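Quick one: structure tokens for this chain, please?
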Amino acid sequence: MRCRLFALAAPCAALCLVSGATVAAQCSRTSTEATNALVELYTSEGCNSCPPADAWLSRLRSSGHGAAIGLAFHVDYWDYIGWKDPFARAEHTTRQRWLAQVNRSRAVYTPQVVVNGRDFRRWYDTNEVKSRIQATRQMPARARLDLHLDATGSEVLARLSGQVQLTRDRNEVGIFLVVYESNLRSRVTAGENNGTDLRHDYVVRALHGPFVPEASGVIEWSKALRLDSNWKRADIGVVAFVQSRASGDVYQAIDLPLCQG
């Protein structure tokens, strides 16, 4: 698998209810005592070595890795070569560079897979993937998360509660909320993938955070998430996760598809 490297700048089970009065779909999920594996793919439609990784992420859950929560972060540093990735965001590139720093890497590259904050270069090896996810599941979670979604019209009210195990102060961890969309397709007409039809799942549409818990480690947070009119509600989900802001370690992550009202 050919990876494309870019030098870094200086360090820098769900419950669904439908209420007839508001036609709102309400969903909730609570994390377990085992730690879920947060799998981040850094990718771009401008990179010709990325489509196999995109397809791999789409297959991740169907391949029996149900404890893996996949997210595709499309980066923007490939846009200069002729094809502007419609899913790329500058904040995704910023996040990838931060992860590179905590992993003591001098470069970012695509496709890159990160599992619970750690670079994972052998993502294409089924046995290695299984081993990494199993090892993650054997770690007791350092956070408990309860995620509730109340979707009405073009907004989703997300309410996140729980508890984080703090070793110092609350600023040591960050709480993130991600809105993703699956079943996306593109016809690329320029750049390295010119003439290629691409399909994507778990594409990050919005990244919120980091937020911090209370001084006691208690999480009580809510936010109205706007849904773009072009997003397909049937393919939207929300991921919440807690992550160390020093090491990149993921304390816990949960995924909740948007219930349909």
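The chain is about 15% helix and 45% strand.
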